[in-house]
Design a protein that fits this description.
The complex is a heterodimer.
Chain A lengths: L2 E3 L4 E5 L4 E3 L2 E3 L5 E7 L5 E7 L5 E3 L5 E5 L4 E6 L8 E8 L8 E2 L3 E6 L1
Parallel strand pairs in A: 2-12
Antiparallel strand pairs in A: 1-4, 3-9, 5-6, 5-10, 7-8, 8-9, 10-11, 10-12
Chain B lengths: L3 E4 L2 E4 L5 E7 L5 E7 L5 E8 L5 E2 L10 E5 L2 E6 L8 E9 L9 E4 L3 E5 L1
Parallel strand pairs in B: 2-11
Antiparallel strand pairs in B: 1-3, 3-8, 4-5, 4-9, 5-6, 7-8, 9-10, 9-11
Classes of the chains: A mainly beta, B mainly beta.
Chain lengths: 114, 119
């Protein structure tokens, strides 16, 4: 069975500082990996995704993530955080075949200090 | 990407009543999913809804409590039946958007959610 771990429940960074949100997954083969963002009172917006190929993927809003097979990780990064980035971030894993639904991590709440 | 709308966006309901949530997509999609997000929690899959077949429910969710309809490729409903305060959650519909080349994109897009409060 697939699973996702986001070890950081809550992170606070200063505006303009760099950001890294951790995500570790468990899956028997090469997974589909996703990062979603949920702003307060909103649905989920896709930030970026990894299916295959280049292990460094670029997303919207200046975010990027790197797939590291050896570490079973897919960490999300941003070089300079903006106040509008304050939100809940979810990492998710999907399967290539069979069960099509996503398995989500528990989420990381990002707070941005002025 | 697919554009998804949900109705209602939020509701406050009395214990013992039922609420039907609608999910509309702007394109035809094969697979639709219903998730629940309890307060302060992550998303949990309730069921997968394919057009023309019975929904497939995850462990812990049953059809009598969460009946689902999928009458066509652009629409689905989820009913939360005989509600209790424990059903207070955000309910999200999602669709799998596959590439035109066939089966490669496999990206899920989410509706804005329905925030349900049960008193």
């Amino acid at each position: 069975a697939q699973s996702v771990t986001q070890p950081d429940i809550h992170i606070t960074v200063s505006e303009g500082a760099s950001l890294e949100l951790r995500c570790n997954y468990s899956y028997g083969a090469t997974p589909y990996l996703f990062w979603y963002v949920q702003s307060p009172g909103q649905g989920l917006q896709l930030l970026l995704k990894y299916f295959s190929g280049d292990t460094l993927v670029q997303g919207i809003k200046g975010f990027e993530a790197e797939f590291k097979r050896s570490q079973s990780s897919f960490n999300l990064r941003k070089p300079s955080v903006h106040w509008s980035d304050a939100a809940e971030y979810f990492c998710a894993v999907g399967a290539h075949t069979g069960r099509r639904a996503l398995t989500f991590g528990s989420g990381t709440r990002l707070q941005v200090q002025p | 990407s697919a554009v998804i709308s949900q109705k209602p966006s939020r509701d406050i309901c009395q214990r013992g009543t039922s609420l039907t949530i609608q999910c509309q997509v702007d394109s035809q999609v094969t697979m639709m999913f219903w998730y629940r997000q309890q307060p302060g929690q992550s998303l949990t899959l309730i069921a997968t809804a394919n057009q023309g077949s019975e929904a497939t429910y995850e462990s812990g969710f049953v059809i009598d409590k969460f009946p689902i309809s999928r009458p066509n490729l652009t629409f689905s409903t989820l009913t939360v039946s005989n509600m209790s305060p424990e059903d207070s959650s955000i309910y999200l519909c999602s669709v799998e958007d596959r590439s035109r080349a066939g089966g490669v994109t496999d990206t899920q897009y989410f509706g804005p959610g329905t925030r349900l409060t049960v008193l």
